[in-house]
UniProtKB/TrEMBL annotation:
Transmembrane segments: none annotated. HAMAP family: ASADH. Homodimer. One of its GO terms (molecular function) is NADP binding. It comes from Tetradesmus obliquus (Green alga). This is aspartate-semialdehyde dehydrogenase. It is an enzyme of class 1 (oxidoreductase). Residues 38-153 form the Semialdehyde dehydrogenase NAD-binding domain. The active site is at 167 (acyl-thioester intermediate), 281 (proton acceptor). InterPro entries: Asp_semialdehyde_DH, Asp_semialdehyde_DH_beta, NAD(P)-bd_dom_sf, Semialdehyde_DH_NAD-bd, Semialdhyde_DH_dimer_dom. It catalyses: L-aspartate 4-semialdehyde + phosphate + NADP(+) = 4-phospho-L-aspartate + NADPH + H(+). Pfam families: Semialdhyde_dh, Semialdhyde_dhC. Pathway: Amino-acid biosynthesis; L-methionine biosynthesis via de novo pathway; L-homoserine from L-aspartate: step 2/3; Amino-acid biosynthesis; L-threonine biosynthesis; L-threonine from L-aspartate: step 2/5.
Length: 374
C-alpha cells in the first residue's frame, strides 16, 4: 500500500509542475486556422468567461474566428486574446449567425433566452448554467465520464445544446466514476466545502475585502452573501427547498449524477457548505459499493483515470488541499480509506479537491468543444 501511495504521490507532483510553469509565463497559444470552427464566448467579462479564453490558449484549441459577447454594460470593452485586440460585442439575437460553437457562461436567465436562439442559428451551445442540465434530450457531459452522451452532435449537423454539469458534480464524479466502474456504487454521501469562485468574481472580491476589514478591526459588510464570509462558513447560498430541507446545490448533485451515469439505482445525499476559500472546492465523499473493494484497487483505478491525480501520503498527513487544485486541470484525490463504521469491505472514504473555475466550469466546457472536433 505504501509503495502504491508513493508512486501515486510522485505521479501527482510530476503532473502539477508543468501547469504551474505555464501560469508563470510559458508561452501557450491557441491555434488560429482557416479550417477551425468559429467560436463565440458569451459572458466573456466574467470569471468563467475569462477562464474560457485562458483554457483555449492552454489547450491550443483550433479556431477560425472568435467573437466575444457580453451584456450591453460591458459592450465596447477591449479584450486582448492571442496578440490581437478584440472589442466585446453586445449579446443580441443576431450574434450567432456565423458561429459554430458558442461557449455560454452568463447565468441561467441569459442561457434560457439566448441558448435556443443560438441553437436555431445552427450553433452548438456548450452551456455552463443549470438552465438545460435536466432537460430531456440535452446531453449532460463530463468528457472523461460519458462522452458517448453527445456522440450524435456534430459541427455542421445543425444546432444543439450540450450542458456542462454543476461544478460540485463534476469534481465528485471525476473521482467516483473510476471506482463506480470497478465496483458499482450503491450509496454516495457527499459533504462539500465550496470556494468563493463558485459565486463569481464579485464574491471573490467580497471575501478579499471582508478579510482586510476584519483583520483591520472593522465590521465586515455582507453584500453578495447574507452572512459574513471572512473567517466563517455557512450553508450554500442557493435556494432552499423548505419542505425537504435541501438546497438547490445539494439537489443538483443528486439529480445530475443519476443523469450522467444513466441510472436511478444509486442513493445519493449531499450537504453543501460555503467556506472562505478563494478558489477550488473540496469534497468529503463516503461510498457504499455492491461488492468488496480494497484501498489498493481503488488507488490503482484512480491513478489510471485521465484527469485525476493522487495526493495520499499517510505518513506525512499529506492529502489534497484547495491550494493544490487552484488553477490546475486535474481533480486531486486522497484520504482513500476503508469506512470503519462498516463490518464489511464495501465502504470507502475519500477527500477530493478541484478548481471550480477550471475543471468545474471552463475546462470541462472546452473539453466538450474538443469532442466536437473529432
Amino acid at each position: 500500500m505504501q509503495a502504491l501511495q508513493s508512486r501515486a504521490q510522485a505521479r501527482c507532483l510530476s503532473q502539477t509542475r508543468p501547469a504551474r510553469v505555464s501560469r508563470q509565463g510559458l508561452v501557450v497559444q491557441a491555434k488560429k486556422t482557416a479550417d477551425g470552427p468559429s467560436i463565440a464566448v458569451v459572458g466573456v467579462t466574467g470569471a468563467v468567461g475569462q477562464e474560457f479564453l485562458q483554457v483555449l490558449k492552454e489547450r491550443n484549441f483550433p479556431y477560425k474566428s472568435i467573437k466575444l459577447l457580453a451584456s450591453a454594460r460591458s459592450a465596447g470593452k477591449q479584450q486582448e486574446f492571442e496578440g490581437e485586440t478584440y472589442t466585446v460585442e453586445e449579446l443580441t439575437e443576431n450574434s450567432f449567425n456565423d458561429v459554430d460553437i458558442a461557449l455560454f457562461s452568463a447565468g441561467g436567465s441569459i442561457s434560457k433566452k439566448f441558448g435556443p436562439v443560438a441553437q436555431k442559428a445552427g450553433s452548438i451551445v456548450v452551456d455552463n448554467s443549470s438552465a438545460f442540465r435536466m432537460t430531456e434530450g440535452v446531453p449532460l457531459v463530463i468528457p472523461e465520464v460519458n462522452p458517448d452522451a453527445m456522440s450524435h452532435v456534430k459541427i455542421g449537423g445543425g444546432g444543439a445544446i450540450i450542458a456542462n454539469p454543476n461544478c460540485s458534480t463534476i469534481i465528485a464524479l471525476m473521482a467516483v466514476t473510476p471506482l463506480h466502474r470497478l465496483a458499482k456504487v450503491k450509496r454516495m454521501i457527499v459533504s462539500t466545502y465550496q470556494a468563493a469562485s463558485g459565486a463569481g468574481a464579485a464574491a471573490m472580491e467580497e471575501l478579499k475585502e471582508q478579510t482586510r476589514d476584519v483583520l483591520d478591526g472593522k465590521e465586515a459588510k455582507p453584500v453578495i452573501f447574507p452572512y459574513q464570509y471572512a473567517f466563517n462558513l455557512f450553508s450554500h447560498n442557493s435556494g432552499m427547498d423548505v419542505e425537504m430541507g435541501y438546497n438547490e446545490e445539494e439537489l443538483k448533485m443528486v439529480k445530475e449524477t443519476k443523469k450522467i451515469w444513466g441510472t436511478s439505482d444509486v442513493a445519493i445525499t449531499a450537504t453543501c457548505i460555503r467556506v472562505p476559500v478563494m478558489r477550488a472546492h473540496a469534497e468529503s465523499i463516503n461510498l457504499e459499493f455492491d461488492k468488496d473493494i480494497s484501498e489498493a484497487d481503488a488507488l490503482a483505478a484512480l491513478a489510471a483515470f485521465p484527469g485525476v491525480s493522487i495526493i495520499d501520503d499517510r505518513s506525512k498527513n499529506r492529502f489534497p488541499t484547495p491550494l493544490d487544485a487552484t488553477t490546475r486541470d486535474d481533480v486531486y484525490v486522497g484520504r482513500v480509506r476503508r469506512d470503519i463504521s462498516r463490518s464489511d469491505a464495501k465502504g470507502l472514504e475519500l477527500f477530493v479537491c478541484g478548481d471550480q473555475i477550471k475543471k468545474g466550469a471552463a475546462l470541462n466546457a472546452v473539453q466538450i468543444a474538443e469532442l466536437l472536433l473529432k
